[in-house]
Write a structure and sequence with these properties.
This protein has 237 residues and is an alpha/beta fold. The protein has a six-stranded mixed β-sheet, with helices on both faces. Strands 2-1-4-5 form a four-stranded antiparallel β-sheet, with helices on one face. Helix 3 crosses helix 4 and helix 3 packs parallel to helix 5. The two termini are 17 Å apart.
């Protein structure tokens, strides 16, 4: 298998200025490999540092140590820790997707526009983008009556499904999933599993953090557990 991502000794600390520069360790000494088409699952208690690892890879958080070597289509081998803001914007737009439990979109943009614009950012035509948006919204069981509505009116589960559609419609090279089944019913979980497995067959590599261990074990290839910011390799699933 071809290596896509190599994380070595990743560290993220937070400086709490209001508490006399006290430092909080988000994660420390995180090292693992991710191959093309592979899905790694990360488990751990709330506050253990799971989201910090994903956000450091996506560079929502700026790591304070270590390296994240990524095989980019645009830039070749690149250390995401040292990548410029311009490089990271381009990589996020074309190569790396991120699914959060929380929806962050412009207030006056409809659900179908949220998904279609993700494709148009990649240079896809408006007609193609709209057709793909409709297809994936239907896959995630978002009623067509909601497609022209503003997402701020959606329930938590509907917002999460829209987040999934927005990220997955791009068929990214690397997809980061932060609790992708939180607040979803069983039918919606099935649609998420189907799309994950489809993306895997198409070559998308994924890293996901989970509390739903039963769901995780049906989709991941390897599992790590995170305890107090330290990653432990578990048995291959």
């Amino acid at each position: 298998m071809n290596e896509l991502l190599k994380v070595e000794n990743l560290q993220k600390t937070f400086n709490m200025h209001e508490f006399n520069e006290k430092q909080i360790i988000g994660c420390n000494g995180i090292s693992f490999l991710l191959n093309e088409g592979e899905f790694i699952g990360i488990t751990g208690k709330s506050g253990s540092g799971k989201s910090t690892v994903l956000k450091s890879i996506y560079r929502t958080y700026a790591p304070t140590g270590g390296s994240i070597h990524y095989k980019s289509e645009q830039f070749g081998p690149i250390d995401l820790v040292k990548a410029t803001d311009r490089e990271m914007i381009a990589i996020r737009k074309h190569e790396i997707g991120y699914v959060s439990q929380f929806l962050n979109v412009m207030p006056r943009i409809t659900a179908i526009e949220v998904v279609a614009e993700a494709l148009m950012e990649m240079g896809k035509g408006s007609e193609h983008a709209a057709a793909e948006a409709k297809s994936i919204l239907a896959h995630f069981n978002l009623p067509s009556s909601l497609w022209d509505s503003y997402p701020r009116t959606f329930s938590g589960g509907e917002k999460l499904r829209l987040n999934l559609a927005q990220a997955m419609v791009k068929r990214p090279k690397l997809l980061l999933l932060d609790e992708p089944t939180a607040s979803l019913d069983d039918a919606s979980k099935i649609s998420v599993k189907e799309m994950i497995l489809q993306l895997k067959t198409e070559g998308t590599s994924m890293i996901g953090i989970f509390h739903d261990l039963d769901f995780m074990e049906t989709v991941v290839d390897r599992e790590y557990s995170l305890t107090q910011g330290v990653l432990k390799d578990e048995m291959t699933v």
